[in-house]
């Protein structure tokens, strides 16, 4: 039987895609918050997020290798909003 200690085991296992999952969850929630039945305050925050106010969208997209402008275009096609 091969003995592997914890540090060796960590080196063998690829890192989890936690960043991708987290960014996906944030984008999903922000999309939900664009819906007409979302609370007004949350909807306004989501509009600002997808407008890249504060560069938050860009930073999140950069973490997972997405083009934030492409994300903005896709969101605009799915959920056109007047900001």
Describe the structure.
This protein has one domain (18-78). Helix content is 64%, strand content 0%. The protein contains five helices and no strands. The chain has helices at residues 6-12, 18-32, 40-50, 56-64, 68-78. Residues 1-6 have low confidence and may be disordered.
Q: Helix and strand layout, with pairings?
A:
Elements: H1 6-12, H2 18-32, H3 40-50, H4 56-64, H5 68-78
Helices and strands, in order, run as HHHHH
Fraction of residues in β-strands: under 5%
Regions with pLDDT < 50 over 5+ consecutive residues? Answer: 1-6
Count of extended strands:
0
Based on CA atoms alone, the radius of gyration comes out at 18 Å
Number of helices: 5
Structural class from helices and strands? mainly alpha
Terminal Cα span: 63 Å
Mean pLDDT: 82
């Amino acid at each position: 039987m091969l003995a592997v200690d914890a540090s060796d085991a960590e080196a063998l296992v690829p890192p989890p895609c936690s960043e991708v999952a987290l960014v996906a969850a944030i984008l999903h929630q922000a999309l939900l918050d664009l819906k007409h039945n979302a609370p007004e305050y949350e909807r306004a925050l989501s509009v600002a997020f997808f407008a890249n106010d504060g560069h938050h969208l860009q930073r999140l997209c950069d973490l997972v290798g997405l083009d934030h402008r492409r994300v903005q275009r896709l969101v605009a096609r799915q959920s056109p909003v007047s900001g």
